Amino acid sequence: MVRHYRRFQWPPKANLDRAVQCAKAAFRGWSATPYEQRRRAVLAFADAIEENYTGFRELLTLEQGKPIPQATAEMDNTISWMRGMADLQLPEEVAHDDDSHTVITRYVPLGVVGAIVPWNFPMMLATGKIAPALLTGNVIIVKPLPFTPYGGLKVVELAQSFIPPGVVQSLSGDDSLGPWMTSHPDLDKISFTGSTATGKRVLRSASDTLKRVTLEL
Fold first, then answer.
1. Beta strand pairing status for 102-105 and 93-97?
2. Distance CA 64, CA 75 (A)
3. Domain boundaries, the chain
4. DSSP label at 162?
5. Which residues on neighbouring strands pair with residue 216, listed in sequence order?
6. pLDDT tens per residue across span 49-58
7. pLDDT band at 3 (very low <50, low <70, confident <90, very high)
8. pTM of the full structure
9. What number of CA atoms fall less than 13 Å from residue 41's CA on the CB side?
10. Nearest 5 degrees, angle CA 200-CA 156-CA 161?
11. Under CATH, which number does the domain 13-86+108-216 receive?
12. How far is CA 205 from CA 51, 155, 182, 211, 214, in A?
């Protein structure tokens, strides 16, 4: 007997489209939220990670394979990074001012950010992308690597207690998910950490829609 197998992709692309739609809807409210309120939310999120420190450290050891001292260092850096970024301000700068006109430089939110996180520092690099996105009034969809997805999913689940719905989301999937994100017309920025070879593909894919791109290679 001959068996025919159908190859499934997970998650379906519709899941990404739905997440982006939710993010775009949430962006309207979050981008208008005062900076100090966004900052308090990020700090509360960091406090909650610290309260769940042992559980996240054990998760790193079980899923990623770090020895306890290295997992401890990653958790310490995760919390200190988030709190450190929350100390950064977004000041307006008067570039020119005279009787005829005034020129002011200010930071404004971009929109929906796609964060692609590798396997080696899944907690630190996920939150290292989430915190600055939230502080600057953006919304974010995190894609952890398929080999270490659980930490990213759990940390985003924890964020739901402090951040409005749709502002922080996470999707886990196979190798098809990353290209869908980098080419998606409604994602405004990609933050990628990974190999140089993959980074080149990310840049080529994102160029079709002129996305902002940050690469850590």
1. antiparallel
2. 13
3. 13-86+108-216
4. T
5. 193
6. 999 999 999 9
7. low
8. 0.92
9. 24
10. 150
11. 3.40.605.10
12. 39, 28, 6, 9, 13
